[in-house]
Design brief:
Blueprint lengths: L1 H33 L7 H23 L8 H26 L3 H12 L3 H40 L6 H9 L2 H15 L7 H22 L10 H26 L3 H11 L6 H8 L4 H26 L1
Helix pairs in contact: 1-5, 1-8, 1-12, 2-5, 2-7, 2-8, 3-4, 3-5, 3-9, 4-5, 4-9, 4-12, 5-6, 5-7, 5-8, 5-10, 9-10, 9-12, 11-12
């Protein structure tokens, strides 16, 4: 019994040692933005560089060398889609019962469904290494298009949009394109010859710390005033109920331990800062969205430790 308690304490300590540097970078990004260290024009450029170059390089390199014949992958894909599907149906029911407008429903649903990819991959890399990153990249290949499609639909449901308007942003998404290209290279057996693997690794290494700094720079604490019930309930659903849902799905489908842990971790992440941009572009409640992003990111420093320590 004592040995079990000691092992659990060691596991929690390892989690803390792996996660605190990630949140230190987020705090650092917030401080640099407040101090205007690099100027306000730096952060949108850094986000664009990461989104279109560095981050796709990380996903491409991981999928290009991933073991796609892993027998756990079909169940992992089913778990991802099942978890998102259950959450989406629950959101639609709440929309009907609470009579939310598309502007409000779009912000709330993104707070529940979307996830901070930068923080997720940094946490998976710190906790589970290369094997965990490979599973995470495969999950992203399914989650990114599904979540983007649901987010756009939620924000435009009342106006009605064409299938082309829904699918075009997804087809142009650099993360989706990188996943597709990496899977194609892997399937064809091309590999990453001639030092291209080292080039991609250098780009990938730069992606995660820059992404976390940008997450911190995007925080807007001033948006937390007002809407307290909506903000707190959305945070509780995303940070606590969603990982519980993922746990139930993983147990029900009999996922292996590593796949289960990566799935639960991604369902426990705070929502994506890019949700604010999409909400503004499509006429959603951007003030509510900014508050959700900020509060979820702040509270996830505690909730992620709680969820992962229970996993440990």
């Amino acid at each position: 019994m004592q040995a079990h308690a000691n092992a659990r304490e060691c596991a929690v300590l390892e989690l803390w040692l792996a996660l605190w540097p990630l949140f230190a970078l987020i705090v650092g990004g917030f401080a640099l933005r407040r101090l205007r260290f690099a100027g306000d024009e730096f952060w949108p450029t850094a986000e664009r560089l990461n989104y279109f170059v560095l981050f796709p390089a990380l996903l491409f390199s991981n999928l290009a060398t991933a073991p796609l014949r892993n027998p756990a992958l079909p169940r992992l894909g089913l778990a991802v889609l099942l978890g998102l599907g259950i959450a989406w149906l629950a959101l639609l029911l709440c929309k009907r019962l609470r009579h939310w407008t598309a502007a409000r429903f779009g912000a709330i649903s993104q707070g529940v469904l979307r996830f901070n990819t930068y923080l997720g991959l940094a946490a998976v890399g710190a906790l589970y290494g290369k094997e965990g990153l490979t599973l995470a990249a495969l999950m992203l290949a399914m989650m990114v298009p599904a979540v983007n499609l649901l987010s756009v639909w939620a924000l435009t449901a009342e106006r009605g949009v064409s299938g082309r308007s829904l699918l075009l942003p997804i087809a142009r998404n650099p993360l989706i394109l990188a996943c597709a290209a990496g899977a194609l290279v892997n399937t064809l057996g091309i590999g990453l010859p001639g030092g291209s693997d080292r080039l991609l690794n250098l780009l990938a290494v730069a992606s995660l710390p820059l992404g976390l700094l940008c997450v911190g720079a995007a925080l807007r604490p001033q948006q937390l005033a007002g809407e307290a019930p909506a903000l707190l309930s959305n945070c509780a659903i995303r940070l606590l109920l969603m990982p519980l849902l993922a746990y139930g799905v993983a147990r029900g489908l009999g996922l292996p331990p590593l796949a289960s842990s990566v799935l639960i971790l991604f369902f426990a992440l705070p929502t994506a800062p890019t949700a604010y941009v999409l909400t503004r572009q499509l006429g959603g409640d951007s003030q509510l969205m900014a508050g959700i992003i900020t509060l979820q990111t702040l509270l996830s420093a505690i909730s992620l430790m709680l969820v992962l320590s229970l996993l440990a």
